[in-house]
Design a protein that fits this description.
Number of domains: 2
CATH topology of the largest domain: Nucleotidyltransferase, domain 5
Mean pLDDT: 94
Distance between the termini: 14 Å
CATH architecture of the largest domain: 2-Layer Sandwich
Number of strands: 10
Strand content: 15-25%
Shape: globular
Order of helices and strands: EEEHHEHEHEEEHHHHEHEH
Helix content: 40-55%
Largest sheet: 5 strands, mixed
Number of helices: 10
CATH class of the largest domain: Alpha Beta
């Protein structure tokens, strides 16, 4: 990343195309979020039971520019009013990332604007800053989604220390795979969470993986196997399906909560941020809110619409880095794998 830029960027256009959602937003550091739009490809991928990368890329090509025009119109802006462009540069599906990066870089070049490639997980980590009462560092962040389950110590923006990571399946991935083996429709994670609301407490109990030993890493593949064996040995009735779903969700949520409390003790922080798609899980929100009230730490979630992938979090993260004088060279580059701790700090 090159420096410097002489002034704060003004309205920043954010583009998110890391997987199967096309997100666009405009964020201004002085005025906040001006507009955001989102198109989800869920219906298209449902026929295949999961995201098909080639189809995802093609759909981003079709939807991205119309969404840019719509978002700018909602914000009451033209392209000439923009001060910078931000886009997801990774991690994610390489073809999908290239669609967003190419469009964003072309727009920035044509307008003579600075552009910044944003780390997708930093976008999620900063999403609670979109709320009226944003948390201030230092804090511990739980980034929990279909591809990630990480605990991060946040000393400041760009000053990240990895405390714990998943050794196999991420929590969201375990939700999706467990839902699939139980015959639930795609997307499986939200379907399983809805079904769990009908389950009976105590009908089944599954282990809380890796909570019986020190450390902050996660492992959910064994839990998935426990559910499979319990489901195969059951009567497979609708009530039993709901009971198994509830027990599985309780095991995931309690495991995450235990590790979050350990991370707070280890870091000495008294603020906890939850971000990523699984952050929308109502049982997780309730469990951590209750724990915070009991144990004296604050818990911060983004609103539901900003838990899943979205352009607003990319526009925000990009605006902060552009204002700090960081921007990219003209080359178009994406990083399907990208270490969050390698990001430069924001002064």
């Amino acid at each position: 990343m090159n420096q410097p830029i002489a002034k704060a960027p003004g309205p920043v256009l954010g583009v998110e195309t890391s997987c199967d959602e096309t997100g666009v937003a405009v964020y201004d550091l002085d005025r906040g979020l001006l507009a955001h739009t989102l198109y989800s490809q869920i219906r298209m991928h449902a026929d295949y039971g999961g995201v098909v990368p080639e189809l995802a890329s093609r759909d981003h090509v079709r939807k991205l520019l119309p969404l840019v025009r719509e978002t700018l119109a909602r914000a009451g802006l033209g392209v000439g009013d923009l001060g910078g462009v931000a886009y997801t540069a990774g991690p994610g599906l390489v073809g999908a990332l290239l669609v967003g990066a190419t469009a964003a870089r072309a727009l920035a070049w044509s307008l003579g604007l600075p552009a910044i490639g944003v780390h997708h997980m930093e976008g999620h980590l900063l999403a609670p800053l979109l709320e009226p009462d944003p948390p201030e560092p230092p804090f511990v962040a739980l980034l929990v989604s279909g591809g990630h389950s990480m605990l991060i110590e946040v000393a400041g923006i760009g000053r990240y220390t990895l405390l714990g990571d998943t050794l196999d399946d991420a929590a969201g991935e375990a939700f999706d795979k467990t839902a699939k083996l139980m015959g639930l429709p795609y997307p499986g994670g939200p379907a399983l969470a809805r079904l769990a609301e009908q389950g009976r407490a105590g009908a089944f109990r599954f282990s809380r993986p890796m909570t019986d030993r020190p450390g902050l890493d996660f492992s959910f593949s064994g839990l998935k196997t426990q559910v499979l064996l319990a489901w195969q040995a059951s009567d497979r009735s609708e009530q039993t399906k709901a009971d198994v779903a509830r027990a599985f969700e309780e095991a995931i949520v309690e495991t995450l909560a235990i590790k979050c409390r350990r991370a707070l003790v280890q870091s000495g922080a008294r603020r906890l941020v939850i971000a990523g798609g699984v952050g929308a899980n109502r049982r997780l929100r309730a469990e951590l809110a209750d724990a915070g009230a009991r144990e004296g730490f604050s818990v911060h979630f983004p609103r539901f619409e900003f838990c899943t992938d979205n352009g607003a979090m990319i526009a925000l993260a990009g605006a902060l880095r552009l204002a700090a004088g960081q921007h990219e060279t003209p080359a178009i580059a994406v990083r399907p794998r990208w270490d969050l701790a390698s990001l430069p700090p924001v002064a």
